[in-house]
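Person: I have long wanted to understand how a fold can be written as tokens. Underneath my words sits a plain record pairing an amino acid chain with its backbone structure tokens. Those tokens are not coordinates but codes from a learned vocabulary of shapes. I should like you to check that the lines agree and flag anything odd. The protein I mean follows directly.
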Amino acid sequence: PAGDVEGFAGYVQRLGREPELRRAMSRRATERAQNFEWETVLERLVGYYDEILDPAPAPGGDGAASEAVFSASSPAAAS
């Protein structure tokens, strides 16, 4: 818990005694940090934009119904 100095000190001592725990924490920290590398963040962001700008048709459909609705309600269709 926040402010638990004795608990924190005990955990630091445990890390000093247990090299496998240190290695496991190091591996997990490295894996987690990779989520924040620029390449990873950029790929995820581009994926989000792709989903928003070009959504896949609903399962079992070809998208024709939504295309008909959008084309019928567009300003060009009204004129």
Q: What stands out?
A: The first helix runs from residue 5 to 17.
